[in-house]
Structures are given as C-alpha cells and as structure tokens.
Amino acid sequence: MNSVEDIRKMAVIGSGVMGHGIAEVYTLNGYPTSMMDVKDEYLDRGMRQIRAELKTLVSNEFVTEGQSEEALNRISTTTSIKDAVEGCNFVTEAVTEELKLKRGIFAELEKFTTDDSILATNTSGLMITKIAQGLKRPDRVIGTHFSVPPHIIPGVEIIRGKRTSDRTFKIAYELMKKIGKVPFVVKKEIDGFLLNRLQLALGREAFYLVEKGVATIEDVDICLNSVLGLRWATVGPFRQMDSAGIDTATKVWRYILPSISNSRRIPKAMLEKVAKGDVGMKARKGFYDYTRFGLEDVTVERDNGFVKTLKLMKTLWK
Ligand SMILES: NC(=O)c1ccc[n+]([C@@H]2O[C@H](COP(=O)([O-])OP(=O)(O)OC[C@H]3O[C@@H](n4cnc5c(N)ncnc54)[C@H](O)[C@@H]3O)[C@@H](O)[C@H]2O)c1
C-alpha cells in the first residue's frame, strides 16, 4: 500500500466511547468497516449508539437518510480479532487505555494483517514507540487520536513514534483529510501529546478552583462554554495574545502565574466518582446526573449541542 487511495477496508478494535464513533466515521466515508470487541453486548451497545448518532446527523442535514442506511450496511461486528482485521489494510485500535493491553492487541494485529497494513492507535497519550515496542514492523504504527465525539469533532492529532515511517505518516495524514477531518501533527512524541497536555493543564485548574470553593462546577463549565469555547474556536492562545496585547498579557501572567495549581495528584473529586462507579455519561451519572435518560438519549442531546456549534464553526472558518 503506497497511497491513501489503496485503503480498501477498515477495522476498529474496541467499540466503546471512541471505537464505535471511529467506526461510524469510516463507514460514513464509504469504507467497509469491521468493529471488534470482547463481548457481543458491547458491540450491540456500540451499534445502538451508532444508530442514534446517525439519526442526529440526518436530522441536522449533515448526511441523508440514504447515506445513513448505506453506512449501516457497510459496518459489521465480531468478537474475533482475526476475523475483524482479515483483508483490512488500515486498523484502528481503540481499546481501554492500558499499555500492556494495547501491546497485546498490536502483537495480534501484526499476526493477522498483511505486512503493508497500517496499524493506528487512538491512545489519549501513551507513547506510540512504547505501544509498538517488540513488533517486527513498528514502522507501520502511528497515532490517530480522535476526540469525543469522533463523528463530529473535526480535529485529529497525528502522532509519529520514533520508528513510524514516512509512508505510514503520509497515508494516515492524507486519510484524515480524505474523511473530512482536520489533522494536526505532534512532531516529537511526548506523554499526552498536544491535545491532552493542553486539556489537562486547564482541567487541573478547573478542579482546583472548585475544590477551593471559588466557583461551582456549573459556573466553571459556563465560563469555558461562553467565553473560551467561542474564542478558541476562532483564535488559539497565540493569536489571542496578539489581539489582547503581549505587554498587557505579561503584566497579568506575572501576578496570576504563581497561584495557578501545579498539583501532580489526580483530583480527589475524580477518584471519588470512580470509586462510586459514577464514571460519567456511560454510567448515566458523573459530575452531572443523566439518570432520567437512556444512553442513546444522552448522546443525542450532547450531539445536538455539538452539531449546532460545528455549524457555527464552519461558517467562522470560511
Ligand atoms: N473517551 C474519550 O474521551 C477518549 C478520547 C480520545 C481518546 N481516547 C482513547 O481511546 C481509547 C478507548 O477509550 P474509550 O473512551 O472508548 O474507552 P471505553 O472504556 O469506552 O471502551 C474501551 C473498549 O475496549 C474494549 N476492549 C477491552 N479489551 C479489549 C480487547 N482485548 N479486544 C477488543 N476490545 C477490548 C472494551 O470492552 C470497551 O468496549 C483509549 O485509549 C482512550 O484513552 C478516549
């Protein structure tokens, strides 16, 4: 396989929050796609979410009813990794974020795919080089990091491992453009890459402010939605500083910076939620309560919000 045009068939390993959405993106773009997980019930859950999400895309006129039906016809599910990847030349791994588990999956992928297939991981921030360690062909491993919900969020982070080849990089990059995503590149591998380092820096401060009683969870969310969300959809931190004035920013940074959280511990509130099993939308309880809704309804409500914002962003980018 020498070009993006040679990709014929996709496989996605894992059908959870990310896996089902990535499979949905590929099938919507015309690729026969096979989705794999360890249990049929997980695959059924993934397919239910795909159906619900496609309905939202149809009702918001992102795709037609016919395209949605065709996408559903192109997707298949299996609990066998061998069956999932056979005949596929681009595989995306989206299983639980554990290095050992991912390494095991990649060893299997190496066994069951042809030599020139590309093996991508959706890891949030594990080093690609570590995931590919021990493989005969680490040159064909790359990070293609989608964001939740993958069928809507445009940006995809592309991460090269130390041994990722130029061919692998070029094909993965071109693929993201071909499926209508906006790729951005991590030049030098680092834990958490670009996106999650930025997100965590902000998230740490958000938890710190709530812990200190400075603001409620709701108001921290509103602050980001109503100010930074719109700002960052238009300008990044560097353009923003140009528009605010670097001299003024220097004055402000000087007195605020010393009081910004530099904690290296997971916030207590997160650990408490995990211990209780209140792990968020997928459990219908997290920092907010979703118990009144089924999982698909929660997803539809979330997606309607994202779709409205995406429509606005598309007009801003023109
Ligand atoms: N949730 C997010 O917002 C997000 C965003 C970007 C990247 N990621 C990354 O994407 C990956 C998947 O995250 P998620 O949020 O979808 O997790 P998830 O827990 O929702 O889903 C993981 C899925 O992997 C399956 N799985 C576990 N072992 C498996 C195996 N041996 N074979 C096949 N499937 C297996 C699980 O059954 C589960 O369905 C992780 O690496 C995560 O860090 C997550």
Question: Can you characterise this structure?
Answer:
It is a single chain. By secondary structure, the protein is α/β, with parallel strands linked by helices. It has two domains: 4-186, NAD(P)-binding Rossmann-like Domain (Rossmann fold); 195-317, N-(1-d-carboxylethyl)-l-norvaline Dehydrogenase, domain 2. The protein contains 13 helices and eight strands. It has helices spanning 19-28, 40-59, 65-74, 81-85, 99-112, 128-131, 166-178, 195-211, 217-234, 237-244, 246-256, 268-276, 295-317, and strands at residues 10-13, 33-36, 75-78, 90-93, 118-121, 141-145, 155-160, 182-186. The protein has an eight-stranded mixed β-sheet with strand order 3-2-1-4-5-6-7-8, with helices on both faces. Helix 1 (19-28) packs across helix 2 (40-59) and helix 2 (40-59) packs across helix 13 (295-317). The longest helix has 23 residues, at 295-317. The chain is globular, with a radius of gyration of 20 Å. The two termini are 34 Å apart. It binds nicotinamide-adenine-dinucleotide.
